[in-house]
Design goal:
Layout: E1 6-12, E2 25-30, H1 36-44, H2 51-54, E3 62-67, E4 71-75, H3 86-100, E5 106-114, H4 121-132, E6 137-142, H5 149-163, E7 169-172, H6 181-202
Parallel strand pairs: 2-4, 2-5, 5-6, 6-7
Antiparallel strand pairs: 1-3, 3-4
The site of guanosine-5'-diphosphate (GDP) has 15 residues, from α1.
Length: about 200
């Protein structure tokens, strides 16, 4: 992440608590256990950054990390716990939807999927939501260290095919080895900067 460090600035349970300064926002989305906290920590180059979001009570919130004057990283709650009660699933949907729908500063979604797995039902719902909103998104295929190079390449191709070209890019990352993390950060930074310039141009 270069010289910038990400700093936890707060958690939100509803839209009134979302940031108001208009900095571009990048949303991290994916099923629980996909490696979201690990990736956020790896991106920030800070070990404990996202631990805060894994603490009980914070997992049902949108957690915001500010990266200097550049952007916010928004850590959205994970979906797909096997046995969540219906009411909890609905409250997840309400929160995530209230954040994703029509949010002006939102520049990009980073959609995490485990490189070893096909898309699940929750992933499909998220994909539809992103596409319905026309939110540009990148797919970060996590835990790439778990596969050999050849197999990882095949999985990326298959994810690209499954996603049907909706994603800006599908990138393999490993929070464990750091592979792909610098590249992902470069792309995030470029999209956020572009979004900021566009918003200024529009004013
Ligand atoms: P979250 O629930 O999406 O925030 O997922 P976590 O970051 O807590 O990771 C879930 C599990 O996957 C943990 O046991 C992590 O150690 C493991 N994990 C996360 N990222 C990687 C990775 O890049 N490589 C490997 N091998 N394991 C990972």
């Amino acid at each position: 992440m270069g010289k910038e460090t990400a700093v936890f600035v707060g958690s939100a349970t509803s839209p009134v608590q979302f940031p108001r300064d208009g900095l571009p926002e990048v949303a991290f989305l994916g099923r629980s256990n996909v490696g979201k906290s690990s990736l956020l920590n790896a991106l920030a180059g800070v070990k404990d950054l996202a631990r805060v979001s894994a603490t009980p009570g914070r997992t049902r919130l949108v957690n915001f990390f500010r990266v200097g004057g550049l952007m916010y990283l928004a850590d959205l709650p994970g979906y797909g716990y096997a046995k969540v009660p219906e009411g909890m699933r609905r409250s997840w949907e309400r929160l995530v939807t209230s954040y994703l729908l029509g949010r002006e500063p939102l520049a990009l979604g980073v959609f995490l999927v485990d490189i070893r797995h096909d898309l699940g039902q929750g992933d499909r719902s998220l994909q539809s939501l992103l596409e319905q909103e026309r939110l540009p998104y990148l797919v970060a295929a996590t835990k790439a260290d778990k596969l050999g190079r050849g197999e990882a390449g095949r999985r990326l191709a298959s994810l690209r095919a499954e996603l049907g070209g909706g994603a800006l890019d599908v990138m393999a990352v490993s929070a464990q080895t750091g592979d792909g993390v610098g590249n992902l950060w470069k792309t995030i930074r470029a999209v956020a900067t572009h979004h900021r310039e566009e918003s200024y141009a529009g004013n």
